[in-house]
Structure formats: C-alpha cells, structure tokens
Amino acid sequence: MPHTAKTLSGRAIVTIIGADRVGIIAGISAVIAEAGVNILDISQSVMRDFFTMIMMVDLSASDVSFDDLRERLARKGAALAVKVEIEREEIFKAMHRV
Question: What residues does the ACT domain cover (predicted)?
C-alpha cells in the first residue's frame, strides 16, 4: 500500500537569510509552488550585501508533509547558498512572542 502524505493545514513562516544573489526569490518560490503551498505575504530586503526574506504561507492545499517541505526548502537553500527555515505559525508565535 503506497504511503500518502498527510495534507498540511494552517499557515507557516518561511525565513531566508544569506548573501544577496540573483535567483533567490525565484528558487524558493518555485519550491513552494511545486509543493502546492500558497504565499500569503512576503517581505524582503537587502541590507548591504545580505538578503533577508520572510514569507507567510498557507499550507492547506499542499499534498506534501511538513518535513518533506522543510527538506525541499533546505536543499534549495543550500543550492542557493542561503539559510532557509520554516516553522508553523503557532510554533513561530510561541517562540517569538509575536
């Protein structure tokens, strides 16, 4: 019997930090889109040579597991030489007291 990924629900926060270079937004956004995750809000800036981006994403239409999505984002981040992290919204709020 094939294993099917549990459908994700809720929202999550994706953070990206690293040296600025061409293709970061496109690369990370492609991974998110391929997983069926919708970007709800995005904020990015470049401070000197450092790129930072925070996204709020909706996981409810995704057909991949949270751990699989985290791994896909980490792999793409490594390929782009940036650090990518994803946390569920409720965990992020608890950790950061937003």
Answer: 13-89
Domain 11-96 has CATH 3.30.1390.10: no
Q: Give the start-to-end residue ranges of the domains of the chain.
A: 11-96
Q: What is the pLDDT along the chain (98 residues), one digit of tens a residue?
A: 333 444 456 899 999 999 999 999 999 999 999 999 999 999 999 988 899 999 999 999 998 999 999 999 999 999 999 999 999 877 766 666 65
Whole-angstrom CA distances from 88 to 1, 48, 95, 96 are: 29, 30, 11, 12
DSSP alpha helix (H) spans, 1-98 = 24-34, 66-80, 89-96
